[in-house]
Automatic annotation (TrEMBL):
It comes from the Bacteria. PROSITE patterns: FIMBRIAL_USHER. GO terms for molecular function: fimbrial usher porin activity. The keyword Metal-binding does not apply. This is Fimbrial assembly protein. Belongs to the fimbrial export usher family. Residues 14-158 form the PapC N-terminal domain. SUPFAM superfamilies: FimD N-terminal domain-like. It is a multi-pass membrane protein. The lineage of its organism: Bacteria, Pseudomonadati, Pseudomonadota, Gammaproteobacteria, Enterobacterales. Residues 733-786 form the PapC-like C-terminal domain. Keywords: Cell outer membrane, Fimbrium biogenesis, Membrane, Signal, Transmembrane, Transmembrane beta strand, Transport. Gene3D superfamilies: 2.60.40.2070, 2.60.40.3110, 3.10.20.410, Outer membrane usher protein FimD, plug domain (2.60.40.2610).
Amino acid sequence: MAPGLRWAWGGDIQFNTDVLDVEDRNNIDITRFAHKGYIMPGRYLMSVRLNKDVLAERPIDFYPAEDNPDITLACLSPKLVNEFGLRPQPAEQLAWWHGGECLDIRSLKGMQARGDLSNSTLTLSLPQAYLEYQSANWDPPSRWDNGVPGILFDYNINSQLRSNREGSDRRSLSGMGTVGANAGAWRLRAEWQGRRDQEGDNKRNSFDWTRYYAYRAIPRLEAKLVVGEDYLVSDIFDSFRYAGASLRTDDNMLPPNLRGYAPEVTGVARTNARVIVMHQGRVLYESQVAAGPFRIQDISDSVMGELNVRVEEEDGSVQTFSLNTANIPYLTRPGRVRYKMSIGRPVDWQHSVDGPEFASGEFSWGINSGWSMYGGAIGSEKYQALALGVGRDLLAFGAMAFDVTRSVAQLPWGETLQGNSYRLSYSKRFDDYGSQVTFAGYRFSERQFMSMGEYLDARSRRSGMSNSKEMYTITFAQDIKPIDASAQFSYNRQTYWDRPESERYSIALSRYFDFMQWRNLSLSLSAWRNRYSNNRDDGVYLSLSVPLGNGGTLSYNGSLGRGNNSNQLNYSDRRDNGDTYSLSSGISRNGPELGGYYQRESSLAQMSGSVNYQQGNFTSLGGTIKGGITATADGMALHRQNTPGGTRLLLDTDGVADIPVRGSGGAVYSNQFGKLVIPDVSSYYRNQVNIDINKLPENADVSSSVVQATLTEGAIGYRKFAVVSGEKAMAVIRLANGSVPPFGAQVLNLRQQEVGLVGDGGSVWLSGIKPGESMSVHWDGEKKCLLSLPEMITPSALANLLLPCSPVGAAEGKSENQSADYWLSAKSHQPAE
């Protein structure tokens, strides 16, 4: 009989024991089934579910009701109730019992609760009108978790070796990462990067701590406070490096459909290559990529301004181009104000002061459902800039914004420059036509206009300037549904008053189709042109992929560009453990080539490697390892990661190793200490991870396989799964007087997890049997006796178990030898048939 435990006020339940197939009907314990909602008094580790949302697992105390001791009620603590996200009016009506420790659910009309020990779940139902705004995957601030204190070390190491037939061999080792510590809501971070290059006898080494800073979330203001070295984050002004403090509205705290845009870098690698993305000299991303188009989407949305991209091919050639990150028009919801404020002094890469004190601020005010006004200012002793703009939601026609910025700069040699800069931006998605203009913008700056970054450059050089003139940016995507194809186009152009312009545009066409017995063939064509610092790189890339019946893919790749034409056949596949690999053979201008690429996503790190051979020219090897170490008082683990210093979730599997957990990045297994880390968790977003019960070890069971967490930025979240591990066997329990526990008695392990339910004649199916541990047997709402397990458990003993259960007081004084004697004499004490 399964316990369906719905709380209610009243009613004994009578059982007809004649229907039970039990020899001794007078020895039955059904007290926990005798009343609706009855759970024996005590503390239970339970997963709390509010309406359809799962809150964190936690201990729940059950106490007898004050007006009816025959029933028990769960104690909903003030801390748990605060996570409900109640609106102010219902929160004022709450009533409490048990000395003010527990919520009286009758004070919230319509609230219901149901406890279920079979799956360790406490289900709460609450009218939605009582709750703050929520969306499908977003929780109100009352449920945000700052995580636990801890330290972290994240790294990204790249290595390359190139053996040339003629000339010197080349070796390089580079790395970047983040060291950090968390304390409450504060996140302390230090970023590093280093590189070692060797060509022949020439060596060059460098290592820098690139940034020291601390930050925290301020939920009441929907803002983020940053102290230390930072880059100016602005939707109006260009970015520069400074040391100081900033307070800015954090769009990541908003529901997902109201959040902003993060930059995306796309390109094409002609061979297995290394891609490096930099912002003002700081490496943001570095990794090996396989030959073909690549897309980098995990760059922080706080990055503003120009990105420098470097693609280092295996054959020694290098692609370089720049991209300007861009935001959608600066619109704000009606009645809301978004803001950013900063104060400090510019600093250089050596952490030295490189400019005067400054203060900056900007805002965006949602006037009504259609219009937003925004503006800002930067002020220092000899540089000032003021901006004002307006944004308009054009509804079916998209959104548009226009602003004007005026600057006044007093240069060290006595010259004063004044000028204006004008910007127009537009964004629109045409759902009916499958089209999307992600961003389109134009900016014109007068010759004497200077941004703060340009002023600092001119000030440090004391002569010459590099002022921007015009910037064009557009990104467009189109689905061509009749032929199941899509097209993408992007264009960036930057002109200057006193140096050559830079330009990049690319177009990509792709189509899926069937041909004869082959299905889902993919044909794609990419073309690009880069012009940057008087360099020019034009190229065309053609790819045809044919899925094979065994799960692999055969493809042809052809490229044309910079005087190097190549044709290549490639076979790629995914192994059963999730690893991916590819093998290639082709010919280029310099001769025949062979190559290979392998990537593994392990629980400890993400690893990839490549090898390339060109006949009569060179052999090269490359590899990347990305991972991290996270340590807290609750445990530590090695793990993979993509976002250094980012949010993560430490999971505890109750000390049981090799428990498979599925997160956003695939399966991760707990280490020998029963700990694992899910990296790259989305901040302020409801994240759910679960145990893959189909891959559990044979000696493990779980009562609840899902946990959820909504973590603040940079947090180390902690969640614990209730995992029962050990042998399983049928046993018979005997009391000291030779009788058996009553039918329906519970058997609990040391963690107070139910591992068995006593049946007829003292028989019980036990799980979690471990040498040397003890278990307790409960009935009539009390712990009655203890089972002591010996230090050694043999397979033959598991096949035929008789377990003596000693009274609580006597069992505590019984020796291990006596317990073992009872165990080993099991065969001679079997109950009669």
